[in-house]
Write a structure and sequence with these properties.
Helix 2 crosses helix 14. Strand 1 and strand 2 form a beta hairpin. The protein is mostly helical and 321 residues long. Strands 1-2 form a two-stranded antiparallel ribbon.
Amino acid sequence: MTKLDARAQPRPPTRRRAERPASRQRQRQRRNGETLLGLLLTAPAVLPLLVFFVVPSLFVAVISLYDWSLLGDSPTFVGIDNYRELAGDEKFWQALRQTAYFALLTVPTTTVLGFVLGWALYRRIRTGHVLESVIFSPYVLPPVATVLTWSWIFHGDYGVLNSLLGHLGIGPVDWLGDPRWIVPAMAVYAVWQGTGFSLVLYLSSFGRIPREVYEAAAVDGAGAGRMLRSIAFPLVSPTTYLLVVFNTSVALKVFVVSFMFTTGTGGTGLSGLTVNLYQYQQAFVNFDGGYGAAVATALTAVIMAVLAVGAALGQRRVFYR
């Protein structure tokens, strides 16, 4: 056989080429195994979310397409008629404005107070653990009990707050009856109740910052204010972003304090009416399940839109180390 004939003969597959399909199969099996493991590990968190949020939200969205009296009448499909009525419902828009006002009062205040108090306690103020427990305790107390207590504090005739103001020569204020003060009164309660949660998260975030960073800044002559502004604030920005998103969602869904401060009526001139309270009135007072579901679905859409905008804007200012 000549050299030319030898070159023309097909070469047997090398060992490396023969091993390639098996290697790719093993990689594919490993990726499938990792995917399955990831699904199993996330299932305890994802399944409750699906069962208690996604599925009920979809069910409510379907109900909103029906005219359904909760007194026993059969539901009648009406399409988007409930949403057309909602678009022209002045009570709904008033409730939405007041809910947004409540969120604007509570979200920045709760976040900033949590940051300031967290930094102060982190800097080794005496009795820090005691203060931390005292500030956090309202967050874990039953909301109905704490709202009832604050309704007595804000009472126009015999409330503690008006009694203190009287000693300062300030006349009594009808906190829960005056349309100008009902939402700020609700916000005061929400800030008192929610600041502890922000405090605990910020304390944890401050504790994760390496001590060497502060020591290096101190060597360079940075004071406490400069460390706070140039080190602590940027490094806890993921916590700030999380708290803004979480507190916004909670504020837009406010119900208990609105219901109890106004005894479920919305207050004078509906000045304390929130979207969730309006949804409750429609569904469980007027027994209009379809319209109440439309209000709930509209609120869900508003919350998701606000959080989507916040995510798009906030991610640019978050520093992940």
